[in-house]
Fold these 2 entries.
Entry 1:
Amino acid sequence: MDIGKLIYKKIKKYDTIVVARHVGPDPDAIASQIALRDAIRFTFPQKKVLAVGASVTKFKYFGTLDKENYENIENALLIILDVPTLDRVDGIEGLSYKEVIKLDHHPCDEKVADLEIVEDKASSACQIVAEFIFKTPMKMNEAIASNLFLGIVSDSDRFLLSYTTAKTFQIVSKLINDYQLDFAPLYNNLYERPINEIRFHGYLAEHLNLTENGLAYVKITPEILKEYGVDNGTPSNMINDFNYIKEVLAWIFVTYDESHEIFKVNIRSRGPIINETAEKYNGGGHKFASGARCKTESEINNLLKDLDKVCKNYKESLE
Ligand code: AMP
């Protein structure tokens, strides 16, 4: 039987379903999670369906997450979205679940769930969720379609990134057509920023270091974050803006997170494969969009050195 139908049957079978996604969520993670939760509730109003994990104020427009005491939950069906492995799932500590379903677009060699749809060449988790809903008797409405639309737009960086395919446009077209989405006003939620963030963007551009191999990086201290009045999640929202710089093959933001005493690293590329290097530094992700976590400045410097080498090898391979 088709995997989508098998997943639909599992959803139909369980009374309690918990929908989760990765820690440090981005719009695709939150949108796919809330869209799937709401689609299950809409299709099966009698079921208890929860979207769990830490709330992010700036993503409130997608909908609210559920705060529930897990002691009352037994034998739930757990659905994980936009995350390759269970260790990066947010908010499931202490949850008693019986089976796991995964819908994801990150590369992953191991099978981690009982049933899974893994399409590492899909633009976004929202694209996979939308396709799943369209191919099964699951129901959708305008609010769910809007969330899925925004998740796809965000994770494909407005259809710029290479995993944008004909299928992406077909799904987006169907969302817009079937639910009459007035999509231009939705962009306000995704793209409106306060002026201090624009000024911080200017700081990043001004302080980009560039190696002769085409690696660009900025180290962002807590003092700089304070000076510009931004939080340590802000650089993540800006990393994609530094694409298409002629001299840059791969680019990195290193942000020190004081409360967790860790360096958060965002890495992007427009050619060299970066996720294999990120994996060596407590990280991972996609071939051209990865992240890592380092404990010390010397680990950071090693990561920069390794990625510079990756850029050098890539450059030489083109000659
Ligand atoms: P970010 O730069 O945080 O937007 O992350 C880019 C991609 O890398 C996303 O697909 C993340 O899920 C993934 N990623 C970020 N940090 C990590 C990490 N520490 N471990 C594994 N994957 C990560």
Entry 2:
Amino acid sequence: MTRPVLRLTRAWPDRPVAALRARFEVIDNPDDAPLDRDALRRALQGCDGLLATVSDRLDAGLLTPGLRCRFIGNFGVGVSHIDLEAARAAGITVTNTPGVLTDATADLAIALLLMSARRASEGEALVRAGRWQGWAPTQLMGTHVTGKTIGIVGMGRIGAATARRAHHGFGMRVLYTSRTPRPCDIPGARQVDLPTLLAESDFVSLHCPGGDANRHLIDAAALARMKPGAHLINTARGEVVDEAALVEALRERRIAGAGLDVYENEPRLHPGLIGLPNVTLLPHLGSATVETREAMGMKVVENAIAFFEGRDPPDRVV
Ligand code: DGY
């Protein structure tokens, strides 16, 4: 019996690749070079399943009826880089990898919160540049974290895990937004609307989905509502923040700082961000631990096996 052909768009950890090879014909990408639009088009025409990542923009121009590809297994939980309506219309099933990257991403949100509060990037740059003159009473004073208020925008799995870390680890008061009424067992946690959250939080941490629904949710008006000493943390999706407005707010010190792991046009950054001392910039590392990336790969394998055995994949998105 011929085995389905699966195309990996990027290089994966070894364990899930070995698991794939046991069941499928696998076309891999050992050089890990992102596929351009033409290469993606050819891939969709030449495989039964495409194993995609956030670096593959799969829009309606690519996801057209009549493709050989019937399955897209996304290596990641966020799917705003895939036009889901176009996939549905083209008869393509899309799956993702929820759950397995919750802890890693929440850990990174807290890392960014601490780095931004304590001006860690500025301090590291000073030391690396050989400009540090020694300890001084007023040097690089940051913001206290313990006991402050964190505002969680989007109380899904990762938002809730970040809230638990902030409350149980740092005694932070938790405010959160959610599209639907959502109970939370963290003592004192309160569901509020976005304007209230922005006005009352010392740290605003974004955990909502990307895509059109939340594009520029944090725009100039939202930034203007934040406290002057507040910090914005984004480990969700770049498009949730109007990067140009954020640059202005940081430049004019209308907010104290930001910690970003994701960007509007990855891997390009708004040029204004690079020179700002009060922003911490990471290269989309949210789920980047060995354990998590292997688990993400194994989830894709599980979904692919279910799909090609004719079962409903456990993490079907469309
Ligand atoms: C995710 O899973 O959404 C990560 O950001 C990688 O895409």
